[in-house]
Amino acid sequence: MQLGPKATVIISTYNQPKWLELVLHSYNLQTIKDFEIVIADDGSTDNTKQVIDDFKISSQLKVTHVWQEDDGFQKTKILNKAIVASNSDYIIFTDGDCIARNDFIETHLRLRKENSALSGGYYKLTETISNIIDKDIITAQKCFDKTWLIKNRQPKSFKMNKLSKSSFKTNLLNKITTTKATFDGMNVSCWKTDILAVNGFDERMKYGGEDREVGERMMNNGIKFKQIRYSAICVHLHHERPYKQEEAEFFNRQLRTATKRNNTVWSTFGIKKDD
CATH class for domain 7-261? Predict the structure, then answer.
């Protein structure tokens, strides 16, 4: 029996209020309305809080703002807090720079299955396109339209197939893609019980594969990941990544190697801490 909303959308963010405002607008346009939003905020300033507060006033959606003090890249910690704050038995994870097509939540919910997680993707926009997108463009869904994108100098590529609305085409592409279905935090969904069963994200991890690692523990625990990169559509706004650190990425690779080698399921550095 469903006790809460059909889905919780967890949106991670850090000091990108302009992008977050556009992303939140895209959730006001969803074909399904029975969901909540939990914003996992890794220490943003009051500018981000103002965007969230304004959205709460203008939207009928339930929005929870989970914030922690800025102490470097600690996305895994705030995501764990957001999981605890969620009220649905099904969670969709995404980022505050990914604008969702209006059928995004509907698609995740339609394709969900027991003992499974859904692995989506995103379509990267150029800096030029990112800077001209506004709420009107999102409302008209132009940022998901190949013709509009090409007209505004988005380079043509095979990856534009990620914007297709043909169910036959998207199902075929999902089947033949060589990209493995993994836990990619910008577009992935799972049952709350399944991520709690592995104790959530490993909070030692900084930027670089930190989301993949929790998915690998879920796989070790018997969860199958299904590829939906051509079905659940979001577009990624351009930005730099100043938080990338080679040392942290090396540590993350070592931890992920150990997770796979040892068939690790439970992280002692996750939601529940050892006394």
Answer: alpha beta
**pLDDT per position as a tens digit, 22-53:** 999 999 999 999 999 999 999 999 999 999 99
Tell me if residue 66 falls in helix, strand or coil.
strand
Measure the CA dihedral 218/248/270/239, to 10°: -80
Question: How is the chain split into domains, by residue range?
Answer: 7-261
* Residue 197: partners with Cβ closer than 8 Å, 6 or more residues away: 218, 221, 265
Report the C-alpha gap between 32 and 213 in whole angstroms. Answer: 30
Please identify which residue in the block is written with the tokens 């929790």.
214
Instruction: Report the alpha-carbon distance of residue 119 to residue 108 in Å, rounded.
Output: 10
Record the tokens describing residue 156, joined without a space. 């043509």
First-last CA distance in the chain: 34
pLDDT tens per residue, range 243-273 = 667 888 889 999 999 999 999 999 999 999 8
CA dihedral 161, 165, 171, 174 (to 10 degrees): 30
Beta bridge partners of 12: 40, 95
What pLDDT, on the 0 to 100 scale, is given for residue 242? 63
- Angle separating helix axes 17-28 and 46-58, nearest 10 degrees: 20
Contact 31, 102 (CB under 8 A): yes
Contact between 234 and 186 under an 8 Å Cβ cutoff? The reply is yes
For 140-149, how does the pLDDT look when each residue is reduced to its tens digit (9 = 90+)?
999 999 999 9
pLDDT in tens, 214-246: 999 999 999 999 999 999 999 999 977 666 678
